[in-house]
Design goal:
Number of helices: 4
Mean pLDDT: 87
Distance between the termini: 48 Å
Protein name: Flagellar assembly protein H
Organism: Mastigocoleus testarum BC008
Strand content: under 5%
Radius of gyration: 16 Å
Low-confidence stretches: none
Number of domains: 1
Amino acid sequence: MFGFSELKQTKVYQEAKQEGKVEGKLEAVPFMLNLGATVEQIAEALDLDIELVRLVALKANTKPQ
């Protein structure tokens, strides 16, 4: 039986944790845009690929308010 510390060492756990971090960063993009940050500033601040930030920004602009 795995204990929590052993579970944290598994590849599946590590990948899921990383995916969650990226999702959290992506959710912040529309809020940062509303505060006036540029796509470039957001990409740098969140350590994300600028093209990924642009895609999220475009998607956020096409959602009904």
